[in-house]
Amino acid sequence: MSQVVKTEQEEMKQKLLDLVKKHKGEKGALIPVLHEAQQLYGYLPIEVQETIAEELDIPLTEVYGVATFYSQFTLKPKGKYKIGVCLGTACYVRGSQQIVDRLCEELGIAIGETTEDGKFTVEATRCVGACGLAPVLMVNEDVYGRLVEDDIPKILEKY
């Protein structure tokens, strides 16, 4: 079993090295490398950041700084189902905070956290462009609108 895991880890590391090599020497290579590395791993663990810094010959602090500055990058694994609750003005005035509170209560996590089983991550988002359906939440690409707190358990059951 450990040999299989090690082989998978080695394979992932080689893919990371290949993608860094593909961008090495390009101006502004760090952001595309971080994007591709995050697609590969699902997030940017410190080991990945260290490899990127070493291979691009830039300080680890620069890699970490970029990874933590831009909201599309994450240093923690995300759940299989990413739940984004809109807290934009229209949704907020129609009760999205209560939706977030109920969601976090049902899952036993706070905004920005992932359930222990790796199934759900809850995030606060801004306008998703569905103001007429306020309050709105998205589970990956699925949109749920005109929500009330009691809708949350039924939505979670689907996943």
From TrEMBL:
Superkingdom classification of source: Bacteria
UniProt xrefs under Gene3D superfamilies: Glutaredoxin (3.40.30.10), NADH-quinone oxidoreductase subunit E (1.10.10.1590)
Entry GO MF terms: 2 iron, 2 sulfur cluster binding; metal ion binding; oxidoreductase activity
Keywords, alphabetical: 2Fe-2S, Iron, Iron-sulfur, Metal-binding, Oxidoreductase
Any single Pfam family the record assigns to this protein: 2Fe-2S_thioredx
Residues binding [2Fe-2S] cluster: C86, C91, C127, C131
Protein name, per record: NADH-quinone oxidoreductase subunit NuoE
UniProt lineage: Bacteria, Bacillati, Bacillota, Clostridia, Eubacteriales
Gene: nuoE
